[in-house]
Amino acid sequence: MLSDFPRLGLDPFAELRRMQSEMNRLFGGFTAATAREFPPINILLGENSVVVTAELAGVTADDVNLNLQEDVLTLGGKREPKIQQENVNWQRRERAYGAFSRAIQLPFRVDPDKVQARFDNGILEVELERLEADRPKRIQIRGA
Amino acid sequence: MAQAVGTISQRTPATTEGAQRMPPRPVFLPPADIYETNVAIVVMAEMPGVGPDGVDITLERRVLTIRGHSAANEHTGYQRVYNEYADGDYERVFTLSEAIDRDKIEATLRDGVLHLVLPKAEPARARKIELKTL
User: Fold this and answer.
1) Chain A contact for B13 (CB, 8 A cutoff)
2) What is the pTM (predicted TM-score) of this model?
3) ipTM, two decimals
4) pLDDT tens figures, A71-87
5) Cα(A29)–Cα(B105) distance, integer angstroms
């Protein structure tokens, strides 16, 4: 519904709308951040392979367990604070520590022998290839 | 002893009336752990995807600025089908309440975590005062 106010050159609701959009912006970001699972993942799909990447800052390759069962990839591990010194005065603790685990349903069955995983600057990248038997096949139609 | 200056929005850029203005890349606020010992302030900031050449740290008077530029990780022939995080840059500003010996600052980057050791300047260090016995 259009209000008549803009015709008069005055819109008392403009400020309200601005406030509402500002509120949505502030709290929209807030809920998105708290609802996040750890680690956040991205999935990229190729023709016959799938790449799963995860943001795992401060985690080494030894701390991560990757398991594959049928078409479910499980990513688990733990992140421990690496501080040698005791008796320190904490100013700010925003990073989360502890165990994590995520199961990812892949779009197809993958070959367990052709999995490549690498860690680069805190980003884990796992590339999985589609099982040969599971790939779509073109069927030739023979003439009668 | 280090305060975050809240100038950068966490997820979304500032909007102008009605329209969303998108920068070329989003800028994130890296989560940080900060602790203080007798001799130094240690900052650990999470910046996954940022390589050693993508880090820019400046200390101007007492304002510490950390910037990280993550290398674009393009997968040609792949299509993004599910996204929980976005590639972007990191920026965070802290105001330090103590003088720092700027010649001895050490910065290391390992597994996407920036580790910054800021040694306190000499006069600011706590000294133990011995009592003289008369």
Assistant:
1) no
2) 0.70
3) 0.70
4) 899 999 998 877 766 77
5) 34
